[in-house]
Amino acid sequence: MVVLAKAGDTAASLSRRYLGDEAKAWLIEDYNGTATFTPGREVVIPKRPWNPSGVESRGYQLVPILCYHNLGPQTRGRLLLAASVFEEQMRYLKREGFHVITLRQFLDFVALRQQLPRKTVVLTFDDGWKSFKEYAYPILKELGYPATLFIYTDFIGARIALSWPELKDLAQEGFDIQAHSKSHDDMRRKTNESDEEYGRRMQAELVQPLAVFQQRVGQPAKILAYPYGSHNEEVVKRVREAGYIAALDVRRQGNPSFTPPLTIHRAQIYSEMSMEEFVRNLTVFNEEAIR
Amino acid sequence: MIAGRRGRSFLAAALALLLGACAAGTPPPSPAPTPPPAAAAPAAPAAPPPAASPTPAAPAPPSPRQQLAAGHVNRARQLEGSGDLRQALDEWKIALTIDPADRAAQAGRRQLEARMDRSISERLGQGRDAIGKGDHLEARRHFLAVLAMDPANQAAFSALQNDVKEIRFVPHTVKAGETLATIAERYYGDRVRSEVIWETNQLPPNPRLSAGMVLKIPEIPGVPFVLPELRPKPPEPVARPDAPAPDTTRPSEVVEINPLLVGARESLEKGEYQVALADVDRVLAGNTQNPDAAELKKVILYGLGKSQLGQRKYEESVRTLLQLTRLAPGYQDSPTLLKQARERAAQQHYAQGLQLYREEKLEDAITQWKAVLEYEPEHANAKKNIEQAERLLKSLQQRQQPKKP
To answer: Chain centroid to CA B79: how far?
Structure first.
């Protein structure tokens, strides 16, 4: 559909009027390359998604996935981020019009099943730090941002970790609880580790947690974050065999739709990053002349 | 459908454009859609009363609708010329949405669709051939081109996801003094992208780079990649004493560490030894072989033992230091500390024994002196006192016995 904008029209108002849902405003915004329209301007109203893979002749879409760890009142070390900095980063996403989606929605994109808004980002939190509840939860709730927590099961119950009941509550509130191994050990085969030893270890690290999540959180885990992000072909094969549908590393780059689902990339957000350095991890398009 | 919203008070010409057909396609290239011709969009409030419904009157002048459509037809032709086929197709579709009767647009769309169908099947074939020859970069180019024409093409998508393995990279020969961070800065303008180089080259944690080593520098999607030959030649290095030293304060790469170990180290720094010990034991429970955890545990036990000694918790200090000795005999000055702790623990029990003896609590005094012997088996005074107290106890008991019924 093609319409002429009236005074005061925005992608949101047009979406409400023509698509019956303000949440679809991104379709209008992305197609026309703007969210505000001068009166009389021709506006294309796409009635349905038109580019599930995000590939066009000028390049292709990327979805950044951010990886956080511990939060606290003050920055300490590399992976303990000050709550105020975290809040600033989340408000930046809001202000800049990023769509924060669930990891499942992202996996639909990676399966060519769902087009995503051009400015899309996924939030993940590793390990299961107790600080998530105090410092991340309130701001995520306020902004309506979903997140995935990757839990390594040995950590749970530690003084500084979330407990299983807390994780269950978070899951019931819509936070996504997924696996991060049992012991947080590097999953690559160690030197001199025999087939049998390695098989046993992977059984404990990959397979046993699945039952634990089902039992303690009431939902199966299907997605893995590699401890330390480290993996190789052998690890990927084990992960697939264990039944995981997706796995994430910490290679600092955004993901095109055609990213292999067992090597999805994330960018770790370090406490010492300035706002400018943070923003570098939010690139949503790879410019490349595709001919 | 929507025309009724503001009655006929809004632009008649605009209302004529509210067409139900769907325009599907990729966004038009920048600059965004050209504004409609002025005739089609008079200034809003002063609009003349609505004309009769937009039935094209005569063959004579083109209607606003036709004029609008013509703009899109022109752009469609331009985009076809520049090879942006998908966007061109969108423009044809938009032209037909505005004016379904436009013959030129009908033909243009038909021809372009046929051209794209041919091209898609050709490029899919070329992509598969390239995979067969092991030329992954070439394959990637073809499959991406297919998706640019048909963004939902399952065959191209699946080939890119599953079959295309390689990414473009350039080799980099490490020079003396370079770190992954400085190399990342040089190629990507971003020090933390060192992680990607680290992973691509499967380097060990915190690797030491040596001059002459060759690293693969991968292309990172979305990050401007500056090939070395394209970079401006760096200025000749001039020895400048005031030149800023390279930033070595930041940790360079790697990456994530076991969070419990981080917690344990932090607790250790704050002197919360018991907390640190609990954390490190948790790590070791999961993996007894973890070398970082094993090393850290020694440091914690040493600190804990020493601090207990300072707080006059001599017995606890002995226990802690004995645990350390089992893990690492002769760790630092732990033998000396252990000796001190033993002596003080013995003295403490000995003094308590004397106190209890004076209070005529003979049995309790004996217990204390026996404890002394645990720490110093050859403690002569303790032995002597125990004997004396036991004798006294015996005679007291004998004196009391006759009173029993």
So the answer is: 40
Instruction: Suggest the residue from B226, B258, B279 to mutate for an interface test with chain A (most A CBs closer than 10 A).
Output: B258
ipTM, interface predicted TM-score of the complex:
0.95
- Specify whether the CB–CB gap between B347 and B318 falls below 8 A: no
Contact B223 A283 (CB under 8 A): yes
The string of pLDDT tens digits covering residues B58-79 is 556 788 888 888 999 999 999 9
Among A30, A40, A291, the residue with its CB nearest the CB of B35 is: A40
- Between chains, do B147 and A53 touch, taking CB under 8 Å as contact? yes
Contacts of B171 (CB under 8 A, 6+ apart): B214, B215, B216, B217
Q: Can you tell me the mean pLDDT for B360-380? A: 85
Q: What is the pTM of this model?
A: 0.71
| Residue B27 · residue A49 · CB < 8 Å | no
From the list B255, B287, B44, the residue with the least C-alpha distance to A227 is B255
CB A110 within 8 A of CB A261: yes
CA distance A42 to B98: 11
CB of A83 within 8 Å of a chain B CB? The answer is: no
Closest CB from B94, B196, B282 relative to A154: B282
Residue A125 forms beta bridges with which residues? A68, A149
Distances (CA, A) of B192 to A141, B189, B224, B255, B377: 30, 9, 14, 10, 60
> Would you give the end-to-end CA distance of chain B in angstroms?
115
**pLDDT the model gives residue B50:** 42
Identify the pLDDT of residue B342. 87
Per the CB < 8 A criterion, the answer to whether B87 and B25 are in contact is yes
